[in-house]
């Protein structure tokens, strides 16, 4: 990846899986500090597994997951459990079950601040500044919220740990187009406030449109990487992962991508030069 920004997260040659069989094979992904990185790919390609591996929820067998601080020191997350990953400034909003339905909105937010010390937690008022609508329903049970409101609560809960890196697994899943736009808008605003984002999405086109860098995973392997605009304009991505050309190619062109330009998106970073 050609980026002058130093990474906040560097996943290198990762092998991971739930059973003896690996789901991720030699996957490498870098998140430049302060940027949005999108991971797209077909169902079952290992996108959620990648996020869960970073967050300590899936056994990792080989490779490194380095979290780099601004002073260039780093932690390897490979042996850490989720609470320890959270304490280092990484939090995840899972694809499913990302709120506690029987708890109130306020209790959900408080859960997001665990297991941090008061000094490490984000101020609830500050987090609610992103989501003013949640501030009006603090006592409501999360189960009674709409899908969009729940998704916002899931993100707000993760922000309560004051993360420097947010892992988002399909934040747009199951939402109406208007709410999807709202969620993507929030992600962009949160990123602009300084939170780096690694985001997995089925809504690949919209996700790449707000991403600085994109990766395509296929069958647990790196397939392609490039800037969001490059991937939006890449013919292979359009045909195989974005559902064809036409309108999508036009959108990519309008965003300044060059679909016909050779090398617009680089092949498999894990094997670059191999
Ligand atoms: N808890 C689990 N136990 C065993 N295998 C799993 C588990 N979760 C996922 N897998 C397997 O890992 C592979 C990758 O699944 P994963 O959920 O990472 O894909 P995905 O790219 O996120 O797909 P989707 O777009 O449908 O969310 C699949 O073959 C899946 O069956
Ligand atoms: Mg998934």
Task: Decide which structural class fits the backbone.
Answer: alpha/beta
* Ligands bound to this protein structure: adenosine-5'-triphosphate, magnesium ion
- What is the count of DSSP helices, taking H or I runs of 4+ residues? 11
**Architecture (CATH level 2) name:** 3-Layer(aba) Sandwich
Overview features:
binds adenosine-5'-triphosphate; 24% strand; seven-stranded mixed sheet; single chain; binds magnesium ion; 274 residues; alpha/beta; disordered C terminus; four-stranded antiparallel sheet
Description:
By secondary structure, this protein is of the alpha/beta class. The protein has a single domain (7-89, 163-271), classed as P-loop containing nucleotide triphosphate hydrolases (Rossmann fold, 3-Layer(aba) Sandwich), CATH 3.40.50.300. The chain contains eleven helices and eleven strands. It has helices at residues 47-54, 82-87, 105-112, 124-130, 132-135, 147-159, 177-192, 204-210, 228-233, 235-241, 247-254; strands at residues 7-16, 24-32, 36-40, 60-68, 74-76, 90-93, 165-169, 196-200, 213-218, 221-227, 266-267. The strands form two sheets. Strands 6-7-8-3-9-10-11 form a seven-stranded mixed β-sheet, sandwiched between helices. The chain has a four-stranded antiparallel β-sheet with strand order 2-1-4-5, with helices on one face. A hairpin with a 2-residue loop joins β9 (213-218) and β10. The chain is globular and about 45 Å long. Adenosine-5'-triphosphate binds at residues 18, 23, 41, 43-49, 95, 202.
């Amino acid at each position: 990846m050609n980026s002058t920004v130093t990474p906040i997260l560097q996943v290198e040659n990762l092998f991971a899986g739930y059973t003896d069989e690996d789901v991720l094979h030699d996957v490498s992904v870098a998140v430049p500090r302060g940027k949005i990185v999108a991971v797209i790919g077909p169902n079952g390609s290992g996108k959620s597994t990648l996020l869960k591996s970073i967050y300590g929820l899936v056994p990792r067998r080989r490779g490194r997951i380095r979290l780099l601080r601004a002073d260039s020191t780093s932690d390897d997350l490979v042996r850490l459990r989720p609470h320890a990953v959270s304490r280092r400034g990484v939090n995840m909003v899972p694809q499913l079950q990302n709120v506690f339905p029987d708890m109130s909105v306020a209790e959900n937010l408080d859960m997001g601040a665990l297991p941090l010390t008061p000094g490490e937690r984000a101020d609830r008022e500050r987090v609610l500044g992103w989501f003013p609508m949640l501030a009006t329903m603090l006592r409501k049970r999360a189960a009674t919220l709409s899908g969009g409101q729940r998704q916002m609560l899931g993100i707000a809960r993760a922000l309560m740990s004051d993360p420097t890196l947010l892992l988002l697994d399909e934040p747009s899943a199951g939402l109406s187009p208007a709410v999807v736009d709202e969620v993507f808008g929030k992600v962009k605003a949160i990123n602009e406030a300084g939170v780096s984002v690694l985001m997995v999405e089925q809504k690949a086109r919209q996700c790449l449109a707000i991403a600085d860098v994109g990766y395509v995973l296929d069958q647990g392997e790196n397939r392609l990487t490039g800037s969001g605009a490059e991937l939006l304009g890449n013919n292979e991505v359009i045909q195989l992962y974005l559902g064809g050309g036409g309108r999508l190619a036009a959108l990519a062109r309008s965003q300044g991508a060059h679909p016909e330009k050779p090398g617009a998106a680089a092949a498999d970073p894990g094997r670059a030069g191999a």
